[in-house]
């Protein structure tokens, strides 16, 4: 009898390919990375679902009483079980303000990283692919900006925007200004990295073939070259997310960030710092601890991603 030929197996799905990849193997073999990913995901989900899981709405005046101010954490003498981590000078629940404050910090962090990535990658592609005067102008601007600290660039842009908008209108556009100021202080890393990668990729056969068949430079840059230089960009974006969150917290701590009526983690730390030496340590310590844990977890993920995407370390 003739044997019945076996039917060809269906190709594995995208999810199956992810779980069979070297990246997933490297991820699950690193306990520190797994813990960092779990912590980061837990904090992000806590911020997203803050209205559902926060015990109180700290920004609704109808639910705030000044008589509840300066309550210590619930496990200390004088604490109230309604306020697990205590209250601040306005009677707001510290746990609730942390959850709502993380929403602002993460929103500004993600938006500024995306903005910096779009600007930096675009300028890096133009500089590396076109070369000549375009390359010289973009790289000289990048060199000049590298001589200034990122926080100084952000303060400068923030101050100019505050002066142009005025004190009353500034509060309405403060989040946009923070995203622009932080994003414009971080674009250089993307541009220099992408430019170096493009200079390597531009002489490869697939780019030369694309030129021979008459594809436009924009098509070659964004459709063919860009996918091959995204690895380093993702690593920089992951690490810059933690830096962006810390920069936003620094600006808010200095009083040039979001207003106290809608505070981020940095604003909460600044508010609590006024009462640190009078004994109400919990007002600043818990937001500061949350900020440190969030930044550390994201940084550890960035370090792992950098090593996992480096073929020399495999």
Helix content: 55-70%
Q: Examine the secondary-structure arrangement and name the CATH architecture.
A: Orthogonal Bundle
Q: Round the Cα radius of gyration to an integer and report it.
A: 24 Å
Q: What is the CATH class?
A: Mainly Alpha
- C-alpha geometry: globular
What kind of sheet is the major sheet? none
Task: State the separation between the terminal residues, measured CA to CA.
Answer: 49 Å
Q: What is the fourth-level CATH superfamily?
A: MetI-like
Number of helices: 15
How much beta, percentage-wise? Answer: under 5%
Order of helices and strands: HHHHHHHHHHHHHHH
- The chain-level mean pLDDT equals 82
SSE class? mainly alpha
As for the number of domains, it is 1
Strand count: 0
Low-confidence stretches: none
* CATH third-tier fold name: MetI-like fold
GO biological process, one term: transmembrane transport
Keywords: Cell membrane, Membrane, Transmembrane, Transmembrane helix, Transport
Family: Belongs to the binding-protein-dependent transport system permease family.
Protein name: ABC transporter permease
């Amino acid at each position: 009898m003739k044997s019945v030929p076996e039917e060809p197996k269906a190709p594995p799905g995208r999810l199956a390919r992810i779980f069979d990849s070297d990246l997933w193997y490297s991820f699950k073999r690193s306990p520190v990375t797994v813990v960092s990913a779990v912590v980061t995901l837990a904090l992000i989900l806590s911020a997203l679902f803050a209205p559902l899981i926060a015990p109180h709405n700290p920004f609704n005046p109808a639910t705030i009483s000044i008589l509840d101010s300066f309550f210590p954490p619930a496990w200390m003498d004088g604490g109230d079980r309604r306020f697990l981590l205590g209250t601040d000078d306005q009677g707001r629940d510290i746990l609730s303000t942390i959850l709502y404050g993380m929403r602002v910090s993460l929103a500004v962090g993600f938006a500024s990283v995306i903005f910096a990535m779009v600007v930096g990658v675009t300028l890096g592609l133009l500089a590396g692919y076109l070369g000549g005067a375009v390359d010289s102008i973009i790289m000289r601007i990048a060199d000049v900006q590298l001589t200034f600290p990122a926080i100084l660039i952000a303060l400068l842009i923030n101050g100019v925007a505050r002066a142009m908008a005025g004190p009353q209108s500034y509060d309405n556009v403060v989040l946009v200004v923070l995203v622009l100021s932080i994003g414009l202080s971080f674009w250089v890393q993307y541009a220099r990295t992408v430019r170096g990668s493009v200079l390597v990729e531009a002489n490869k056969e697939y780019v030369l073939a694309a030129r021979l068949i008459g594809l436009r430079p924009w098509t070659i840059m964004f459709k063919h070259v860009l996918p091959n230089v995204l690895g380093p960009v993702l690593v920089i974006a992951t690490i810059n997310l933690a830096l962006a969150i810390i920069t936003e917290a620094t600006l808010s701590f200095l009083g040039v960030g979001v207003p106290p009526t809608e505070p981020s983690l940095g604003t909460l730390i600044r508010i609590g710092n006024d009462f640190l030496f009078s004994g109400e340590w919990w007002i600043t310590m818990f937001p500061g601890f949350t900020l440190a844990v969030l930044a550390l977890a994201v940084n550890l993920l960035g370090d792992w991603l950098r090593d996992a995407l480096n073929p020399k370390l495999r």
